């Protein structure tokens, strides 16, 4: 095997922080799926935002993982009574990372909270709590590996090129969702109640956010998404 054949893209993955127990943590599915798709996962904890450019320069892709609520101050709103705990350090770090990644046209895959970061960073807003606007359950009670609601993959999107036309069943662990869509982003999947389930920038090599959790979901679509992301990252090698 030649040296070139051994090269694998390095994908940075953001993590959660548990301040009470002084731990960083992340469900293992993110790393497993990235590795299965042929890339090297690298966990990146929150750091000083000034480090974002240097770190992004070492990566071929950025995966913004799921996690807690984003502080609504970033999109010019006051906190809704049902807003959960927020993490200002993680927010600031992930906005800086995503901004640096977009500046270099690095492939970015946003999952759940990651989709929401991308929408806010580009100028969109969030629905802070879905209970007042949707009669559907988006915070499922079943196991993470099982789907609970359908989404329609919308035509004329990058997502439909990856997943194909029609509906798929997805898992759902969110009480917030994208509100106003940022300029330049496009709705790529929608739930039956109209909640945005995927966003993308069709003009970038790979900028896709999904509101569900493909890293935990046993579905062919999960593999297709991770493979498309890793393929885009591998193109930078
Ligand atoms: Mn959902």
Question: Would you give an account of this structure?
Answer:
- This protein is of the alpha/beta class and 237 residues long.
- The chain has a single domain, classed as Class I glutamine amidotransferase (GATase) domain (Rossmann fold).
- Helices cover 27% and strands 22% of the residues.
- The chain has 7 helices and 13 strands.
- The strands form 3 sheets. A 9-stranded mixed sheet has the order 4-1-5-6-13-12-11-8-9, sandwiched between helices.
- A hairpin with a 5-residue loop joins β11 and β12.
- The model has no long low-confidence stretch (mean pLDDT 96).
- It binds manganese (II) ion.
Please give the order of strands in the largest beta sheet.
4-1-5-6-13-12-11-8-9
Total of helices: 7
Task: Report the CATH superfamily.
Answer: Class I glutamine amidotransferase (GATase) domain
| Main sheet attributes: strand count, strand direction, barrel closure | 9 strands, mixed
What is the CATH class designation?
Alpha Beta
Number of strands: 13
Bound molecules: manganese (II) ion
Distance between the termini: 17 Å
Instruction: Return the string of H and E elements.
Output: HEEEHEHEHEHEEHEEEEEH
- Percent in strands: 15-25%
What general form does the structure show?
globular
What is the CATH architecture term? 3-Layer(aba) Sandwich
> pLDDT average, as an integer?
96
Unreliable runs: none
What is the helix content?
Answer: 25-40%
Number of domains: 1
Helical/strand content category: alpha/beta
In CATH terms, what is the fold-level topology? Rossmann fold
Radius of gyration: 17 Å
């Amino acid at each position: 095997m030649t040296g070139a054949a051994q090269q694998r893209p390095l994908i940075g993955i953001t993590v959660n922080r548990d301040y009470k127990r002084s731990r960083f943590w992340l469900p293992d599915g993110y790393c497993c799926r990235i590795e299965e798709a042929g890339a090297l996962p690298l966990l990146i904890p929150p750091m000083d935002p000034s480090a974002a450019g240097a770190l992004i320069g070492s990566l071929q892709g950025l995966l913004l993982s799921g996690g807690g609520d984003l502080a609504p101050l970033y999109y010019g709103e006051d906190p809704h009574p049902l807003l959960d705990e927020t993490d200002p350090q993680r927010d600031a770090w992930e906005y800086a990372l995503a901004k640096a990644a977009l500046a270099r046209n690095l492939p970015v895959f946003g999952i759940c909270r990651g989709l929401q970061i991308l929408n806010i960073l580009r100028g969109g807003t969030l629905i802070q709590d879905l209970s007042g606007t949707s009669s559907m359950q988006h915070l499922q009670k079943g196991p993470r590996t099982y789907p609970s609601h359908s989404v329609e993959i919308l035509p004329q999107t990058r997502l439909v090129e990856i997943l194909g036309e029609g509906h798929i069943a997805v898992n759902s662990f969110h009480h917030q969702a994208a509100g106003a869509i940022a300029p330049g982003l496009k709705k790529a999947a929608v739930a039956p109640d109209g909640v945005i389930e995927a966003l993308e920038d069709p003009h970038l090599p790979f900028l896709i956010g999904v509101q569900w959790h493909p890293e935990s979901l046993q579905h062919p679509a999960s593999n297709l998404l991770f493979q498309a992301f890793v393929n885009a990252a591998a193109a930078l090698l």
